[in-house]
Amino acid sequence: MSTAMNFGSKTFQPRPPEKGSFPLDHFGECKAFKEKFMKCLRDNSFDNSKCRLQSKDYLECRMDRQLMAKEPLEKLGFKDLLDPLHSQAEKDNKP
Predict the structure, then answer these.
(1) DSSP secondary structure string for all residues of the chain
(2) pLDDT-based confidence at residue 4 (cuts at 50, 70, 90)
(3) Count of domains in the chain?
(4) What start and end residues bound the annotated signal peptide (predicted)?
């Protein structure tokens, strides 16, 4: 006799995270960027708005080393930190 009871026929459908999963930085390729970001957070009472440049650099490192999917920095909230030439170069490189 089965002890499991079926209270409705709804089944759980897992969904992946919106941005997907990404590999850990096992080889420490972006460790220096992460450490600068974490130091900035500690020095600024964890006010991340004061560490946006370090955050941008860390995410760029991860994208450059394929530790996360490439995303335009504008979509990640860094449009105001981009210089006009860098922003145009990203637009030119889009397929």
Answers:
(1) ------SSS--------TT------TT-TTHHHHHHHHHHHHHTTT-GGGGHHHHHHHHHHHHHTTSS----TTTTT-GGGS-HHHHHHHHHH--
(2) low
(3) 1
(4) none
Is 90 domain-assigned? no
Q: What is the pTM of this model?
A: 0.65
Structure tokens at 66: 């394929």
Q: 58's torsion region: left (phi>0), alpha (psi -120 to 50) or beta?
A: alpha
Comparing 6 with 1, the larger pLDDT belongs to 6
36: in domain:
yes
CA 91 – CA 87 distance, rounded (Å): 6
Mean pLDDT of the chain: 80
Query: Is residue 15 a part of any domain in this protein?
Result: no
